[in-house]
Design brief:
mainly beta, Jelly Rolls, single chain, 61% strand, seven-stranded antiparallel β-sheet, 17 strands
Length: 192
């Protein structure tokens, strides 16, 4: 894949959790045939969490979690409490650490970036652009821009809320806010 390719929200598969506690929408995974159960180098997803419960144990995986919507969640991280109660609050953790989530007051939505630490590391940030604001996505072998709010355009594609833009190739590319405010997750995946 070269250039920038749009991943439409409607093309992102939704997967109900086996325990019935939520639904995950997989935005992108590498390689494309991999699954959460194994073989992935990186994965970006959004989840709607409807009830309390444990996180899946994922040995060898580094994870970043952002609270997107809802009143928050309390995480019991191997006996230590972490509370995510502010929008876009982030928590980074190792996938092999036992974590139990308790919703503070109703369902939440979160954003997840996972990397297999033997293969890649992620540089990920959430940022906001004003109307006509521009962000240059720095060079990396693989990059993903998820549009959380608003709409953006670049030379090769346009994307609105829920869509993503993916680039496999080292050439930098820029996104420009077309519908403000633009809120973006920008991920760069780098070899270890």
């Amino acid at each position: 894949m070269t250039g920038v390719v749009r991943i439409a929200r409607d093309a992102q598969p939704e997967m109900p959790w086996a325990n019935g506690g939520g639904v995950t929408r997989q935005i992108a995974i590498e390689p494309a045939h991999a699954t959460l159960a194994g073989g992935f180098h990186w994965r970006v997803s959004r989840a709607r969490v409807a009830s309390d419960g444990p996180f899946s144990i994922l040995p060898g995986v580094d994870r970043s979690l952002w609270l997107l919507a809802g009143n928050g969640v309390r995480l019991d991280v191997d006996g230590r409490e972490v509370v995510l109660a502010q929008p876009l609050q982030r928590y980074d953790f190792a996938g092999e650490v036992p974590i139990r989530a308790s919703l503070l007051a109703g369902p939440i939505e979160d954003l997840n970036v996972m990397t297999a630490r033997a293969h890649v590391r992620a540089s990920a940030q959430v940022l906001e652009l004003a109307r006509d604001g521009r962000h240059e996505v720095a060079s990396a072998p693989q990059r993903l821009v998820v549009v959380l709010a608003g709409a953006v355009r670049c030379a090769d594609a346009e994307a609105s809320a829920g869509d993503a833009l993916r680039s496999d190739g080292v050439a930098p590319f820029a996104v420009q806010c077309a519908v403000a405010p633009c809120r973006l997750l920008v991920c760069r995946f780098l070899p270890v």
